[in-house]
What we know:
The chain is α/β, with parallel strands linked by helices. It has 22 helices and ten strands. The chain has helices at residues 9-26, 28-66, 71-120, 123-127, 131-145, 152-172, 174-221, 223-228, 232-285, 290-302, 304-331, 393-400, 444-449, 456-465, 469-473, 492-504, 522-534, 548-552, 571-577, 579-605, 614-620, 627-637, and strands at residues 353-360, 370-377, 382-386, 408-413, 416-417, 430-433, 510-514, 540-544, 556-561, 564-569. The strands form two sheets. The protein has a six-stranded mixed beta sheet, sandwiched between helices. A four-stranded antiparallel beta sheet has the order 2-1-4-5, covered by helices on one side. The longest helix has 54 residues, at 232-285. The protein is elongated.
Amino acid sequence: MPSTAPRTSNDILARGLRVLGAGIREQKAIFAVAVAGGALFGGMTVASAFVLGGVTTRTILPAFAAGRTTAGALAGAALAILGVALVKVVGIVGRRVGAGTMQYRLQASYRRRITRQYLTLPLSWHQRHPTGTLLSNANADVESTWYPIAPLPFACGAVVMLGITVVALVRTDPALSVVGLVVFPAVFTLNFVYSRRMSPRMTHAQQLRAEVSGVAHESFDGALVVKTLGREQEETDRFRRQAVELRDAMVRVGRLRGTFDPMMEALPTFGTLAVLLVGTMRLRSGAATVGDLVSVAYLFTVLALPVRAIGWVLGDLPRAVVGWDRVQRVLRASGGQAYGDRVLPARSEPARLSVDQVTFGYAEGAPPVLIGVGFDVAPGSTVAVVGPTGSGKSTLVTLLVRLVDPQSGSVLLDGADLRELSRGGVSDHTAIVSQATFLFDDTVRGNVTLGADMSDEQVWRALAVAQADRFVRALPDGLATRVGERGTSLSGGQRQRIALARALARRPRLLVLDDATSSVDPAVEAAILRGLRSADLHATVVVVAYRRSTIALADEVVFLERGRVLGRGSHQDLLATTPGYARLVLAYEEAEQERRRNRAALAAGGRGRAGKPPAKAAAKAGEPDGGADADGAAEGAA
């Protein structure tokens, strides 16, 4: 995402304060508690200085003069100092608890908003933005936006303290107050310059954070490709370049901050030295007392940390503005799907599907992927969508479950346009299983239910239809077996069958299979499709297929080519009437026969002493198609 950070210090300050104001409006009560604690701390800090001056005047100096003191005088001094300290502790607790609670609530709230927005935005928007950038928006950018909120109550308390200090200085000694009137503006001027210089550095660093996250995420996702092609060094070098660039950017930020911090620490110290210098002259002239000088000197000594809090807020405003801009680009992104208020009644019978002259393209001005596609699917029937690579099959199935909306035409479920249904209305009646299945790092049961309230009986029933029950029972802990990140402990065919069971467990009225059984043995695929037809599923099925055995089980075939429907009818009819379909299916069949020959050769070469192929031995262990090894061999042969 390109940066649009403010370029002038006035913009930084004004926009940064608006960001903080937005957070304050959302957490008014907690902010009030935190600021009250900060103001109490600031007031008691000033009070402690003047209590110390009073103790010096009334207790310490008389004791030196008389050579003795009384227990009552010491007790009174101790109680005064202790009382102020206890009230200051109350202010510290209120400030810290309030500021921390406010910061973490705002971060959690905006992470939820970004996540909800991600779920709302269409797939086309996600395809235009790298995953690393989206992760950075939800994490690092949110943290940066609300980073200054934590020291803000402290800074507000410091402002109160500075106001009280100026009044107290003027009342105590106008000459000493001049020192404060010089030091305090110098602090704000220094912060002003710092913010102006820090903004471009922080903007660049935030962008680099997203890029580093994107490279890392891409490398993790492509680990199999990287390892198998021996690209580890290239990926390491690519990540190193981005990481070094981020390091250099952060070093530049650190250098500037390292220059700024000592200057902020030094100003109150110079103020203390100036107070001692001026105060000594005032003592000699009799215009000030020792107690006054002690109070003012101590006050400048303890001013360093509260004044630094103001610097923390002003110094982090550029970072907050950059984070806010990046977060708002997500929250204000357009293209989210609109929902109607129509609700389909809950039914158990299969759905009726109609695709009415649908046209769709992924980018404005680009050639459409689908052009005037239209067909009807009778309730309870199975339709196979067949076509060469790039014909629009996967795009079509995303339209059937409203992952995207058509540019023209409509998709109807029981006569209702999917765009007219209320939020969640499509997913209540449909389910899709894609070729690229995803499993969470959870148990088998958790991956099937995804948190839905289902009994074990329902889970096993879905697994049985998906031809997954036997291998799940053979797993060490059955349904409670953890499958690893992305299901890495399972074969490709096993992952597909669990994903299919996940869809079946919800008993959809429309089931869409996007080449969802490509990783399983043809015999298992046939068993799955027969199970779908014979099970008490009550679903209309649309399946993207290329195997002749799968196509033959369909009631009707829709042939797509170059985004258009070039043929509809039974498998035999299309073989006779549509040359493109016949060529494609025969090519698929020849490729399948070649895979079978390769698998047979692999099995013959892997016979053990007992003379049994590994797949048969695995089947005896409870896996109908040879388990993970057989699936892996099939995929390798393919």
